[in-house]
Design a protein that fits this description.
Helix content: under 10%
Number of strands: 11
Order of helices and strands: EEEEEEEEEEE
Oligomer: single chain
Shape: globular
């Protein structure tokens, strides 16, 4: 059973940094691409960043490119999101996510990031 647990969120001032973590279990983590998505209050789910199964390829959304960095540690079954130069508009619940064609999409419970001026 796929289990994803996010942590590391918090309340910070604009310009600060946070590092989100996602602990994965119940599936062959090292064989799955992973992504971070977020949902701001009253808005839909927004793609943030993705990473290949090996970690050798990443893609960032334009809104976070140059500020956020996704990474993974396959030995520890961990996914990370380093967030620098945070902006107020980065305020959202952040989820780690994975999917496959048979079982569908899986997300954790999310971690809240609040950025204030």
């Amino acid at each position: 059973q796929v289990h994803l647990v996010e942590s590391g969120g918090g309340s910070v001032q604009a310009g600060s940094s946070l590092r989100l973590s996602c602990a994965a279990s119940g599936f062959a983590f090292s064989t799955y691409a992973m992504k971070w998505v977020r949902q701001a209050p009253g808005k839909g789910v927004e793609y943030v960043s993705s990473i290949s199964s090996s970690g050798g390829s990443t893609v960032d959304s334009p809104s976070v490119k140059g500020r956020f960095a996704i990474s993974r540690d396959n030995a520890k079954n961990m996914l990370y999101l380093q967030m620098n130069s945070l902006k107020i508009e980065d305020t959202a619940v952040y989820y780690c996510e994975t999917s496959d064609p048979v079982s569908g999409t899986f997300r954790g419970q999310g971690t809240q990031v609040t950025v204030s001026s």
